[in-house]
Amino acid sequence: QVQLVESGGGLVQPGGSLRLSCAASRSIRSIYYMGWYRQAPGKQRELVAGISSGSSRNYADSVKGRFTISSDNAKNTVYLQMNSLKPEDTAVYYCNAKWATDLLNYWGQGTQVTVSS
Fold this sequence. Notes:
By secondary structure, the chain is mainly β. It contains no helices and eleven strands. Helix content is about 0%, strand content about 55%. Strand 9 and strand 10 form a beta hairpin.
């Protein structure tokens, strides 16, 4: 069973930065897609940023220019660098991954990000 472990969440003031990490128990060299989603209270889960096997990246409009997704194949880890954070970025952030070998969706347990003064 594949495990995704997120870390790096916390409380930050508006305008601040955080870097989330998602460590996979399987090599991500053959990853089909890996992304970060978030879910705020009372709202649906939404895609924040993703990276595909061809290293192309996509971002939600609300985070373009502020968030950056990257990967480190040697560490089987995907990162989400979040800058210029806003209160509306407050949510539980989830890591999602899909490998080309089985195309199943795997999810992490989530990490809380709170942006507040």
